[in-house]
Design goal:
single chain; 20% strand; 209 residues
Length: 209
Amino acid sequence: MLHEASVKSGWPLVPLWSVARRVDRTGRPDAELLSVYRDHGVVRKSDRDDNWNQESEDLSTYKYVEPGDLVLNKMKTWQGSLAVSEYEGIVSPAYFTCTLAESVHPRFIHYLLRSTPYIALYGAASKGIRPGQWDLPFEAFRALPVLLPPLDVQRRVADFLDDQIGRIDSIISARGRQIADLTRSVESLAWGEVTAANQPGERKASGVA
């Protein structure tokens, strides 16, 4: 699929190692804890209330991340748990962290490496170690081909995807508010029915049979 896309577009396929270099920077226990989510990318742990992973008492071995770095949860990369970080912080020593070459736009590579064709490649390259956990060797990851258009094209693609995802998020947020309002209305109606049932003489018509 990637080869076909390269032929059609005229954009070269380059090895991932040529645009992403693994780094293991430690010694920043004061930095904010980060995590990688399949659906949300890199997030600050303090912004989530659903991350029950207990961090180590000694954070000095945690890997330091700068904005624009690529971060992978190597045990869940096959599920899409990798992203380019917008935050400075630290991640688990079990993660891979990479700096990106100037020839790639961070948001473009973020979207590209989280796309369905690449997630399929991670699954094929990962090795099962226990149910639900597949280890992705870094040597296999760095050898993957990357479709690399010119930098100005990468920027336009990233801007387009940012805009489209922003629109989708706005629609989801609006629908969520509508559902919340409807839920409150139904709950109020249900409560009215319950209280009216306890006071037959004061029951008002609600349209509910």
